[in-house]
Amino acid sequence: MRRLLAVLFVLSLAAPCRAADDAKPNTLTSKEIAEGWLLLFDGDTSFGWKVDGEVRAEKNELFLGGSKAATVTLPLTHFELRLEYRNVEGIGATNLVFDRSLAKLPRKSFTTIFTGIGKESVWSVLTLKVEPDLANPASGESFQMKSQMESGKPGFYQNNAKYGTKDPLTLRWEIPAGNKLAVRNVKLKPLGFKPVFNGKDLTGWKKFEADPKRAKSRFTVTEDGWLSIKNGPGDLQTSGEWADFVLQLDCRTNGDNLNSGVFFRCIPGEYQNGYEAQIQNQRAKGQRTYTIEEHDPRTHKLLDKKNIANWSQDYGTGAIYRRIPARRAAAKDREWFAMTVVAHGRHIATWVNGIQMVDWTDNRPENDNARNGCRLKKGPISLQGHDPTTDLSFRNIRIADLAGRN
Description:
This protein is mainly beta. It is about 0% helix and about 45% strand.
């Protein structure tokens, strides 16, 4: 029997999907949220997509058309993708391009070409899974592609090629001129996680104790296997360090309007010194105004400062604190919520309960301190004890390394 491929790439086009028409589109079930699924289309906007061409969101559908690409700006190494699509205009041909690249290496990509993928108003389902062969991790670095049209006949060629399995992958649609495609229920589940909290004790974590005034938080593990943080201020840091990663965790604020945060790319041994994914569910009584800096992506010089109105009292859960507020409220106090943080180079994105909160690129000049500039170096993950009212629970803390360093 032939050895399994080091990476299994499964792509299938199912028959027209009618059951999905009965469900509320572009939402996640509680089960999907618990499993770590993310929405890549919110039903209302093209937020999170980088589009050079025509795009519009209307009636819970994302319409893609024009001569240039629409790109999902989410680098991942291993993942599962599901979406529904229908052809709106033209012959139904579109390129689905998956790029794997590293900054220091030539870009490598492979392209899937769909033809005749459906008639107007008929929805079909696409599923895709990219995962390593854990039983045989050293057997090579190949992908296998195969699919079929709705008729059951092959929709395009099958191809095997070698790519570095640790190189993050991005997805790009290319819609030829004269064609239009509608998508909905675009859901992605990152894979390849390793736990960083064992649910039994604080192995792999260390409390900041250099300054007694900032070491008042009590970090314990409950009988339920939750990491509990009470009192503050305080800082609990991982022993491991990461630069590019996907982090997922569950959190619950056990009180009203409590404040905390998940720090990343921290300076090891320093107090709460990194980027902060904010935890603060409180709504402002009226719209708050935050000042956002814009830097040139090439020179990294400050170009402008602009004020934006926002719903939150203090940037909001899922925000990158003091950088960009969360655009929606998706978490409630005294209820478990899921948070996802993706950091890859200068690009940072967050989701709360599977809804994207931030799609931000840190174009500031590079600096060893994330408070002063763009920090690209690896660092610990840390959990914040904010003040004496702090009372939070965390569970299912896991991370997928995008750099292959941990």
